[in-house]
Amino acid sequence: MAQIIESIPNISEGRNTEVIEACIDEIRNTNGCTLLDYSSDESHNRTVITYIGDAKSVEEASVKLVKKAAELIDLTKHEGEHPRMGAVDVMPFLPIKDCTTEDCVELSKVVGSRIADEAGVPVFLYESSATRPERQNLVKIRKGQFEGMAEKVQEEIWEPDFGGRRIHPTAGVMAVGARPPLVAFNLNLDTEDVEVAKKIANIIREKDGGFKCVKSMGFEIVEEDTGKKYAQVSCNMTNYEQTPLYRVVETVKFEAARYGVHVTKTEIIGLCPMKALIDCAQYYMQTNDFDFRTQVLENHIL
Amino acid sequence: MAQIIESIPNISEGRNTEVIEACIDEIRNTNGCTLLDYSSDESHNRTVITYIGDAKSVEEASVKLVKKAAELIDLTKHEGEHPRMGAVDVMPFLPIKDCTTEDCVELSKVVGSRIADEAGVPVFLYESSATRPERQNLVKIRKGQFEGMAEKVQEEIWEPDFGGRRIHPTAGVMAVGARPPLVAFNLNLDTEDVEVAKKIANIIREKDGGFKCVKSMGFEIVEEDTGKKYAQVSCNMTNYEQTPLYRVVETVKFEAARYGVHVTKTEIIGLCPMKALIDCAQYYMQTNDFDFRTQVLENHIL
Description:
2 copies of one chain form a homodimer.
Chain A: E1 4-7, E2 10-11, H1 17-28, E3 34-41, E4 46-53, H2 55-72, E5 88-97, H3 101-119, E6 123-127, H4 138-142, H5 145-152, E7 174-178, E8 183-189, H6 194-204, E9 214-222, E10 229-237, H7 245-257, E11 263-269, H8 274-285, H9 292-295
Parallel strand pairs in A: 5-7, 6-7
Antiparallel strand pairs in A: 1-4, 1-5, 2-4, 2-5, 3-4, 8-10, 8-11, 9-10
Helix pairs in contact in A: 1-2, 2-3, 6-7
């Protein structure tokens, strides 16, 4: 496989297996696309789907998925804990191999335009594809949710990028865009004092002057089986090439040291691109001349 | 691609491009096999070829390669700095994905038997495929080289595993066997004193009581362009799951500290399986619960 683009759409159905499977069949039945994973959350009433392929097959699968979801999912009857604005709520495209974020921006525009035309669902371009700064952030686009969207799109600054100002009556609107792969990364501390985790999260996150492309919060974790408590610095690394994981590890360590606190272990949640980890190995091992592209065996196989 | 086995045979021709290309064409023309790399050394008069595929296609390619090399390469006329005993000198099989060293041992026996039958070249099974302890080590099998082999195979303990005691008149004999992927790994020190590198190499290598599956030597390196001198600990990590790279890094660091010496950088030479590096990232980042098989994105694509 030469070029690899990953898409991780969220659909607003996490309970009705028939509907979920019918949507996922659209991915399974697209040549050149590989379904990697899907996982439903009943309380969120939402399913995350992960698939990969080259630009052309991801385009096909993505448009077909939205058409099927718009046909089967009725937002006027949807309830769940997670905020949502569309039958397919959000559809990111991530560059994995032999393509750039810019290629994924291009793809998002092609797919967004086709979704508006073929499924009748208006589309906001978000993240790296955003056409206005306030549209980079999905949370801002989604504010008001499905129920408030018919009104919101009438506002000057909230005209969708494709499909005009009339929302789909049952499938709402959706966000499509390019973004780098994200790594969900937690660091556990040998203290029960959640304030330490909160202070450190505050130091490392971009929002409060920390590292670019790091989102972070401090949590108190209670282990279900043992009842053991500890504080955790929970991070979303939204661009591991901009801010590599090791930089967060080392910073959390030296900030925790002020309180006599240590990192007991770290956790990576879900999938992680190999480069995010190999970059860290190179740092710690001082393997500075290593050429990821040509020297990692698997890069010759992918 | 489900199962991936890698083969890295060395053929005894590093000068005649026509012969080299004809041999490599046998790999190129085998369905299911991918040629990753080949590189010739004129002074060694030897070419290293790297290809991958599933067991069946690697078997096909490997047998075809030996037949072609036996046809075109005449050891009675071969000269070069590197010791050799056959037209194809050595043919290792390495488990890369969804297969074990044991699967590669099986493959080596199938291929070895076919080579004896179809190319008329007697085969020694070596490394993990060895049928006697003294045959694990290629150097011991090859001792006496092509010129001494007709006599050597008459000795009680040196009957080839396949093909009997009559060597091929121009293609000699060869070694076939399974081994884990090897990582060539150097650590540069901020001293010109090669004795420090030699002492450390002595401590870490298996032969002298150090880590299992580590071969190591101390060298003095003179940079060609700058004339800068430094000592280097040069390692062959013959099984990075047995002894991971980080263990060598940390040991070299603390042993060098005795002399006030530091590691300035490390080098990985050639290809390296991603797991050798990701294992190190996990160590340094304390990502202890990370599941390489399911959590590395690329493992779902390979």
